[in-house]
Write the structure tokens for this entry.
Amino acid sequence: MAAFLCAVSLQAFGESTEPADLGRLPTRVADTGITQGMWLWSDTVFATQSQRTRLLDFCLQYQINHLALAVYFVDTASDSLRLRHEAGLAQLIRAGGESGISVAALRGAGTMAFRSQHPQTLRELEALLDFNARQVLGSRFSDIHYDIEPYNTEPWRAGGDSRLTVQTDYLDFLYAARALITQRGAEVTLSADTPYWYDRAIFAIEYRGEVKHFSEHIQDATDFITLMSYNRDPLRVLEQVAGEADYAHKMGKLVHAGMEVGYVRGEEHFISFQWLPTWRFWRARHVIEDDARQRRGLDGVYIHFYRALYDKLNGEPPWESAP
């Protein structure tokens, strides 16, 4: 495996790709054979026509073919849930489809999968499915994507039975979400973000009669996962996703590798490309994407996140080579 990764990295590091003509953007993202995704956390990015145009032009310029787009409700306590900027969201999904860009509904909160929150979280999922059903074919969410980080909560940090309860509640929620999607006949996939370390032995649990890594239980419940495999070294990223990719291939599923370009400082500054020359980011993305085209189970890359990537790359030639 190590020899294969080195061969891939040398090939990618030696590539020299001509920058695109930024004055003449393509009308569609090219079919690259892999997922090239990006997280977006603000719903203002689709609130106006100019913002939607800026976003889609950015995706065309930098070869992004999938958006994990955070959506929010006007009032979560209301009897009738309504998405903020609903009209703009519908227009973005439609325009994205015309440009070869799929859109997932992204939802997340640390306590979202606690058992006490299941009724509300599933009610919100039903509202998302209702929204999707109102849209015409070809202009719908492709995926319901959860970024739930229970490890940031006190019950998880307490360890022992407390953490086990959090893990079980999380898995129960994913299966309940799957059941609701199936019951509604919704043609969407179900996915989740996970840290790369969920496959450590300490987090393995028995669930539905099987003892597995926590990551494997999550993979069983979803169509794919995206790992927060954040590191500046692309070979380290690939090492961190290897186990989950192998399991995905075994189960007929997929995983994606995550890259960080956010404004991370302090002890974890090393996970982000924000502070490095642009060519270092492109080199790493090339290595990971080349591996995804060859490794079974690994379907592509997600970049975290739009605003940070826009700040870093806007106006920079895509596929910039090393000096």
In short: The chain has a mean pLDDT of 91.
